[in-house]
Amino acid sequence: MALRTVCSAALRTGTDLGVNNVRTFVTTVALCKRTPPLGPMPNDVIDLKKLESVERYRSYTRYLRRAEEAKNQPAWWKTYRGYMEQADPDHGGEQVDIGLPHYRPRRTTEVRERRQVIKANKKNAELERSIRLRTFKIPLDRVQETWEQSSAPFHIKRLAEHYGVFKDLFPKAYFLPQVLLRVNYGQDNNSGQVYYGNRLTPTQAASAPQISFDAEEGSLWTLLLTCPDEHLQDNEAEYIHWLVANIPGGAVQAGDELCHYLPPFPPRGTGFHRYVYILFKQQGPVSFQDDVRPSPCLSLEHRTFKTVDFYRKHQDDITPAGLAFFQSQWDESVTDTFHNTLDMREPVFEFIRPPVYHPPQVKYPHRQPLRYLDRYRDGQEHTYGIY
């Protein structure tokens, strides 16, 4: 009797729940019917069951004209492009080329030279024999030279855009790095070579590097090293690390050092910072009296800098021509730079867990675990009675 009563109650409860669900669904449908539609969706007027009745464009010109008309018509939905234009008015805007003019050889000349090389290779019996025997070695120096003379500026520009160098240093502008800038922090090996976004430690970049680039005799240059990610108070400002102007030819040591070299000091907990070398070509001798920093310049306030302001002030006399940059992260040498070079407390942006505290050891420990003495070992491996 009790089991029958429970089953009937359960069935009655389930029925009531079903009725409630139906009522909720009917109420939702009624509310949806009362809500006015937002507007027609794209291709709502097309009947998918009668595709033969759809008007045909008959020509690409007519299709393009109708597409432009549909694009210009106001729509109730917000596209990604419209959202980005509203959030950032400069998004997708045309950028200005502020670099040196690029002169590309004629296509016919390139094809003629390529055919001559192919014809000479076909007549080379030694080359054919080494390729057939798989003993031919590709000269990497020649490949590097060919890349530098052909597509290197375009590849470097794409890498700089990928890392946001132009966006942060030259808003709404870019340039084509036509002068290959070689920066090396090492002496003989390539471990300290600066490429285009590779990683170097602050210890490797502790002293000024060796700079070399191809320059005409009698030309003047300006070399700048800046960091757009390092400023501690202003997100839009930079810290200048090195500035040398009126460099004759490629001799950086003979130029006027406006601000002496300061090693990278990315604060702890802030990740990787970009350090950008920019080479400017001067039209002639330029006076940089307003940009001279005190020597030695050990104040971060004096090293506050903006590359775009520097370029706007001297844009009639200098033109960006070379680019190289690397990334760096905190290491132990940064602490020494803050304390001894900049004479300031080191900012830390992450939690440093303190060492485990052990109370002083007592001679007769009471109610301590069996491994109490392990806390006070010197860390050396024990012999366990082997002498």
Average pLDDT: 84
What separation lies between the terminal Cα atoms? 86 Å
Strand count: 12
Characterize the overall form.
Answer: extended
What's the gyration radius in Å? Answer: 35 Å
Largest sheet: 7 strands, mixed
Helix content: 25-40%
Order of helices and strands: HHHEHHHHHEEEEEEEEEEHEH
pLDDT < 50 stretches: 1-33
State the helix count: 10
Portion in strands: 15-25%
Class of secondary structure makeup: alpha+beta
Describe what this molecule looks like in 3D.
- It is extended and about 100 Å long.
- 32% of the residues lie in helices and 16% in strands.
- The strands form 3 sheets. Strands 5, 7, 8, 9, 10, 11 and 12 form a 7-stranded mixed β-sheet that branches. It has a 3-stranded antiparallel β-sheet with strand order 4-3-6, with no helix packed on it. A two-stranded parallel ribbon has the order 1-2.
- Strand 3 (182-184) and strand 4 (193-194) form a beta hairpin.
- The termini are far apart.
- The chain has 387 residues and is an alpha+beta fold.
- It has 10 helices and 12 strands.
